[in-house]
Write a structure and sequence with these properties.
heterodimer, A: mainly alpha, globular, B: mainly alpha
Chain lengths: ~220, ~325
């Protein structure tokens, strides 16, 4: 692997972290969906570049799955769901954008501090890839925590899964079967969540999940 | 590194002479984008001349600070601009004055401008100063983070060395540098009161920031402040050019031919950057003032992220 190859791989993985931050930052529904599509596309490029570097053809299939399902189908489907639910309005974040960004920074720092010493025996590239992937996963969790809206929580979940795929491609030797099954389970999860979205709306007239807390009597 | 005084003096003169032209060119391109003919590219020179000839009116309750501030603002901005390598590296002041000094000089100019805005006691000046300071609390840390990223990357805080390092390593793709570039562009847009943050061509009370602070100025004071604003735009574009597209810049003491090549390369770079700036400005709408902190916050975040990611990059090298 030459310096430039590593640089490109690094750039793409870093771009994933950056787009995760953009996801945290977006407060409009359609912008959020588009950013998620970008997230998936960057993932596809990153995985594709890995496939080229590692001479691993099966990774191209992973890249293709990412591009097709997460880059196109899921955003388009969510787009339609959002239109049908009639929630084009602003998302109300539970925590403000500024604090969320700072927490996100701290999480990136944390994942680097944790990953680099733990994986000292590994190859340099796998180490930094894992650090980036852990950041993406943690940022996905953060997104699920800070957003009250069900659709943006789904986006958070999907971006988290993108982070897992990134980790899997960095650590060589993850079998294709596992990746495909993960991909399909995400798709199934997406269907289930889509159905739930409509059920929640029917029951509570909103997709704001704080309404669920109220029905359980947890908060006033 | 060789330090030569003639180059330093030539560059200091060059930035001063070129700055109004740069603003004229950006205005001309902008007018063309809006399908207007626009004034000549030499118009800023004429404006400055006109303002210098005009009578200077000073408010009754203005203090000595109000009279002195324009010259100090101009002086600090000019010195800062002279510290950025334009067509050749190896500036005479380079050893004593690195990026941190440039940031400090610009901070001083901003401080003076805000004071001058408050001095007369009009409400506009006060609003302008408070807004400027609100933006500064985000723009300055962002600028410092960009600086940290660059100096960690190149191992020096001096612009000449950073520029030389960038030439030496050749084409390098680094996520940290990309983030630093975007952050620097956002800071440059914010600091120069360009469109998403402030509109340099308007006097609309609700949105203006920079114009509000200098509303009371007239005559030669105004001319000097305008000149400082021109120089500041040139400074940021030169900085972007010298760090991120350093190719063509002559090294210290390279000889007349290389200097000529460097000068042509520099002018081309400025032209391209000005074009891109105008393209961006034309494509985007002005932000509400209270969204600007978000915009500048992104720059701060990118700078911080760039610095953090640099430590990951270190592992692979």
């Amino acid at each position: 692997m030459t310096g430039l190859d590593a640089d490109i791989a690094h750039l793409l993985a870093g771009a994933m972290v950056l787009v995760s931050f953009l996801l945290l930052y977006q407060d409009r529904m359609f912008a959020l969906l588009n950013t998620f599509a970008v997230h998936a596309c960057v993932l596809a490029f990153s995985v594709g570049w890995q496939a080229y570097l590692q001479r691993a053809p099966h990774l191209f299939i992973t890249a293709l799955i990412a591009l097709l399902f997460k880059g196109v189908i899921i955003p388009v489907a969510l787009h339609r769901i959002v239109v049908r639910l009639g929630i084009h309005r602003t998302i109300e974040a539970v925590v403000g954008i500024g604090p969320t960004m700072l927490v996100g920074m701290a999480l990136v720092g944390l994942s680097i501090v944790v990953m680099l010493p733990v994986t000292q025996a590994e190859a340099a590239f796998a180490r930094e890839d894992l650090a980036f992937a852990l950041s993406v996963v943690l940022l996905g969790f953060l997104m699920m925590v800070t957003r009250g809206n069900a659709v943006s929580q789904v986006i958070g979940f999907m971006s988290l899964e993108n982070g897992l795929v990134l980790a899997a491609t960095g650590a060589r030797g993850m079998p294709l079967v596992v990746e495909i099954s993960v991909g399909f389970s995400v798709l199934i999860a997406f269907f289930v969540v889509g159905i739930f979205l409509f059920r929640i709306r029917e029951r509570f007239d909103t997709v704001d999940l704080q309404a669920l807390d109220m029905s359980r009597g947890e908060s006033a | 590194m060789i330090r030569d005084w003639p180059t330093q003096l030539a560059q200091a003169t060059l930035v001063l002479g070129l700055a109004p032209l740069l603003s004229g060119v950006t205005r001309k391109i902008k007018a063309r984008f809006l399908r207007r003919r626009g004034p000549s590219v030499l118009q800023p020179y004429r404006d400055l001349l006109k303002l210098i000839r005009k009578e200077t009116v000073v408010a009754e309750n203005a203090s000595w600070l109000y009279r002195l501030a324009p010259y100090l603002i101009f002086a600090t901005t000019w010195v800062a601009a002279a510290l950025v390598p334009t067509f050749a590296t190896g500036l005479a002041f380079g050893a004593a004055a690195d990026l941190i000094v440039i940031v400090a000089l610009l901070g001083t100019a901003r401080f003076l401008l805000a004071l001058a805005g408050l001095d007369v006691g009009t409400s506009f000046g006060g609003i302008g100063s408070s807004r400027e300071m609100m933006f500064a609390t985000l723009a300055e840390p962002a600028m410092l983070m960009v600086m940290f990223t660059l100096s960690l990357f190149a191992g020096s805080t001096e612009l000449s060395s950073i520029s030389a390092y960038m030439v030496a390593v050749g084409a390098v793709l680094s996520i940290s540098l990309a983030l630093a570039l975007v952050a620097l562009i956002i800071v440059a847009i914010g600091e120069n009161a360009r469109i998403p943050v402030d509109n340099p061509a308007t006097h609309l009370e609700l949105t203006m920031v920079h114009e509000a602070m200098i509303l009371e100025y007239s005559g030669r004071h105004l001319a000097v402040i305008e000149a400082a604003a021109f120089v500041k735009l040139l400074l940021y574009l030169s900085m972007i050019a010298c760090v991120f597209v350093p190719w063509g810049t002559a090294s210290a003491g390279a000889g007349a031919v290389f200097y000529a090549v460097g000068l042509v390369a520099y002018l081309v770079k400025l032209g391209v950057l000005a074009f891109l700036l105008v393209l961006f400005e034309t494509a985007i709408a002005k932000m509400r003032v209270f969204r600007v902190p978000d915009f500048l916050g992104v720059a701060l975040m990118l700078g911080l992220l760039g610095t953090i990611l640099l430590f990951v990059s270190r592992v692979s090298r």
